[in-house]
Amino acid sequence: MVYNENAPFCKGCETQNEDVEMRHDAYGYATGNYCEECFENNYPYRRDRYYNYLDAGEYLTDDY
Asked: Hey, where are the domains in the chain?
């Protein structure tokens, strides 16, 4: 247990750690606080650390 009462709780394993961060899905929406282990192993949302907006659907181009 962490002695810092301001440290956030992980949404996956429900523990209080210093390495818990606010995570975002592939489209930039906040999904909650997850530790690194839960983010790698049991994260329920689509996670793309290197997100390319060209793969997300429509985008504007000059070649029409």
From this structure: 1-53
Cα–Cα distance, 26 to 3 (Å, whole number): 33
Residue with tokens 């440290």: 7
Across the chain, which has 64 residues, the per-10-residue mean pLDDT values are 72 86 84 90 74 62 64
Q: What's the chain's length in residues?
A: 64
pTM summary value: 0.62
* Positive/negative CA dihedral, 7, 38, 15, 1: negative
Cα distances from 7 to residues 32, 40, 62, 63, in angstroms, run 14, 20, 47, 50
Q: Is 39 helix (H, G, I), strand (E, B) or coil?
A: helix
